[in-house]
Design brief:
By secondary structure, the protein is α/β, with parallel strands linked by helices. It contains twelve helices and eight strands. The chain binds 3-methyl-2-oxobutanoic acid.
């Protein structure tokens, strides 16, 4: 790695400085080399190889089925693409809940085999021992509170979290515990902006929101959602910054027509 590349790479220390300086942090999911290369060139600060790959890449209804092997396979392409951005990989469901030893073993395996920079785990106090052990082993950990899709069966759906006083208090307490445990950042998903503001002001690490208002230190979205590739999904918090789904269908339609009427390939495109 050249000195230039090393210096221009995002680090957890730089992310913390960004929070202190009031500089917003941009994060997007990515699951493959080609799109990740474009996103990195565009200047994104952080990649998340999210377990949303279970839905977006594999077509599952939930994030729960994706495996460690599948997460490692997808992460390798993103790591190869990331010249600038910090790469965070989701620990999939079942890889950190069994025991602290199991969590550390799986965390080390994902780090070694994918080459990523950090890991993300869903949950608060209940997974704190695993979080602490992984951090003690030298791996940067990002927390994830609010709507935690790996617990969808327990939560009873994908609705807004942190609504009542008790749930809001628990979320704030969990965020402080994760911060004290040494998490380098925390994702807050689908919670009221007022609660997100309270959390952001109460912890020293950067807070990255999705469906949590503009009060957090940064934002994350699922790449395919914000590009308009995941056409059926349009929750209130999502802004589509592109209409690539339509562009893909148009281009493919033109290709099919050109094949059918034999105008592709033409003479210049033939040997
Ligand atoms: O898996 C994922 O894409 C995520 C984001 C929605 C934060 O966890």
């Amino acid at each position: 790695m050249s000195v230039h590349t090393q210096n221009s790479r995002m680090t957890t220390t730089k992310l913390r400085q960004m929070k202190q300086n009031g500089e917003k942090i941009s994060m997007l999911t990515s699951y493959d080399f080609t799109l990740a290369s474009l996103v990195d060139e565009a200047g994104i600060d952080m990649f998340l190889v999210g377990d949303s790959a279970s839905n977006i890449v594999c077509g599952n209804a939930y994030t729960l089925p994706i495996t460690i092997d599948e997460m490692i396979f997808l992460s390798k392409g993103v790591v190869r693409a990331a010249q600038h951005a910090l790469v965070v990989v989701d620990m999939p469901f079942g890889s950190y809940q069994v025991s602290e030893e199991d969590a550390v073993r799986n965390a080390i395996r994902i780090m070694k085999e994918s080459g990523c920079d950090a890991l993300k785990l869903e949950g608060g106090e209940e997974i704190l021992p695993a979080v602490k052990h992984i951090i003690q082993s030298g791996i940067p950990v990002m927390g994830h509170l609010g709507l935690t899709p790996q617990s969808v069966n327990q939560l009873g759906g994908y609705g807004l979290r942190g609504k009542g006083e008790a749930e809001a208090e628990k979320l704030l307490r969990d965020a402080k515990l994760l911060d004290q445990a040494g998490c380098f950042a925390i994702v807050l998903e689908k919670i009221p902006a007022s609660l997100a503001k309270q959390v952001t002001e109460s912890v020293s690490c950067p807070v990255i929101g999705i469906g949590a208002g503009n009060v957090t230190d940064g934002q994350v979205l699922v790449l395919h959602d914000m590009l308009g590739l995941n056409q059926g999904f349009k929750p209130k918090f999502l802004r589509q910054f592109g209409q690539l789904g339509e562009a893909v269908k148009q281009a493919v339609g033109q290709y099919i027509d050109a094949v059918k009427d034999s105008t592709f390939p033409n003479q210049e495109e033939s040997y």
